[in-house]
Specification:
The protein is mainly alpha-helical. It has a single domain, classed as Up-down Bundle (Growth Hormone, Chain: A), CATH 1.20.1250. 76% of the residues lie in helices and 0% in strands. The chain has 16 helices and no strands. Helix 12 packs antiparallel against helix 16. The longest helix is centred in the N-terminal third of the chain and has 33 residues. The C terminus is likely disordered.
Length: 421
């Protein structure tokens, strides 16, 4: 029996569910940045120690991606998501009882990193390639926007809670959000369009059946990596996406509030700046998806990395008032994760839509390795020098270099592969 959503294709309901799940998981990943100063004050831990826990979480968040994509092939999207949401909720709850820094690493590093790594770009890529034939770039842009917007929009809310009530209520809110999503995913998220009597959005009625692979997740993930490392486009995508992570959630997402605190700005005001970034990112990244369906994605990447680098070089020299930083927040927000749709588009073009989600998982892993590196490097630099200046300027020049690397990516590939993931 065919199901629809308000009389329309059920893919729209799937988009809504995944959008909310990505938003919530991103909120969880932003929590260490919000609680860096409160944890420092409550436990006496250094920025370097807290940054190490955050870096572990970011690193595992990325490393989990290709294995999560393979697990979705083997066990299903729904089962993988439910397990991930449960892991995130339980690890958040367990952190309420921590007294030592290794427990912070265990809860907000190890377990939350693995759990949130299942609900990220690889989930988006899998959904896009299963449920859509047309407008893939636009939908991927919307998903990418939800991830980055969730990271930023929840920060002022969580910051206000932490400022007025302490860090524990923030953790409780995150745990409840994860728990509430489990029944939504269980009851409302089908595995495939055929399960609700439909074909992918934009496909012809005689669209060929989906390829439902049941490979061993470890074998599938490492097999894809073995194929990817032989490809120059894979390495260029991985390097540029490493820089993307290095210059976004690893640096700004983790240390922006602490940077503003160093310059006398209150946490709620700093969180408000990140919320502005998040709102403009929703526009910028969704627009990036629309543009990716129409413009050479390499040219888009060149523009995104170049402009991001210039804005980061400017930031340490800005006037650290809410209004003084608003221009940066708007400009940088439009470019926050705009790189995701063109990066996936190139991966689909080069490797085909069946293989792309797992390979994109490995490319996304490099993104989080970059983010983890920036999170730890900036924290260590701040501890050693008392300033974030070097971290932001270096990140800016690295982004400019990535802009030129993006133009070197060859997009010759096998775009005719079946739309299954």
């Amino acid at each position: 029996m065919q199901r629809s959503f308000l009389g329309r294709h059920y893919a729209l309901a799937v988009v809504a569910i995944i959008f909310v799940a990505l938003l919530a998981a991103a909120g969880l990943r932003s929590t260490p940045g919000v609680l860096m100063v409160p944890w420092e004050q409550a436990f006496g831990w250094s920025r370097q120690t807290i940054s190490f826990a955050a870096a572990c979480g970011i690193f595992l968040f990325g490393l989990t991606g290709p294995f999560a994509a393979a697990a979705m092939q083997r066990f299903g999207i729904r089962a993988t998501m439910i397990a991930a949401l449960a892991m995130m909720g339980l690890s958040s709850t367990a952190s309420l009882f921590m007294t030592q820094s290794w427990q912070l690493v265990l809860t907000w590093g190890l377990f939350s990193g693995i759990g949130s790594g299942c609900i990220t770009n690889v989930l988006s890529a899998t959904i896009v390639n299963r449920w859509f034939v047309k407008n893939r770039g636009l939908v991927m842009g919307l998903f990418a926007a939800s991830t980055s917007t969730g990271t930023l929009v929840f920060i002022p809310i969580l910051s206000a809670i932490a400022q007025d009530h302490g860090w524990q209520p923030v953790v409780i809110c995150v745990a409840i959000a994860m728990a509430l999503l489990i029944p939504v995913v269980f009851f409302l998220l089908p595995e495939w369009p055929a399960d609700v009597g439909q074909v992918p959005f934009g496909a012809d009625p005689d669209h060929p059946p989906e390829i439902r692979e049941r490979k061993n997740p470890l074998k599938a993930a490492f097999g894809a990596l073995g194929e990817g490392v032989k490809s120059k486009p894979f390495w260029l995508l991985a390097i540029t996406f490493f820089v993307c992570g290095f210059t976004t959630n690893g640096l700004v997402g983790t240390h922006m509030i602490a940077l503003c605190h160093d310059h006398g700005m209150e946490a709620v005001a700093a969180g408000g700046l990140l919320a502005i970034m998040g709102l403009f990112d929703l526009v910028g990244t969704t627009a990036s998806g629309w543009l990716t369906d129409r413009i050479d994605p390499r040219k888009l990447l060149f523009a995104y990395y170049g402009l991001r680098g210039l804005s980061l070089i400017y930031l340490p020299f800005a006037n650290f008032t809410f209004y003084g930083l608003s221009l940066f927040a708007v400009f940088y927000g439009l470019d926050w994760i705009a790189t995701v749709p063109p990066t996936l588009a190139i991966a689909n073009k080069v490797f085909g839509t069946r293989k792309a989600p797992i390979l994109f998982g490995w490319i996304s892993a490099s993104h989080q390795i970059g983010a983890a590196s920036a999170a730890f490097f900036a924290g260590a630099s701040r501890t050693a020098t008392g300033s974030y200046l070097d971290s932001f300027v270096i990140a800016g020049f690295v982004a400019v270099a990535a802009a030129f690397l993006a133009l070197m990516i060859s997009t010759k590939g096998t775009d005719h592969a079946p739309a299954a993931a």
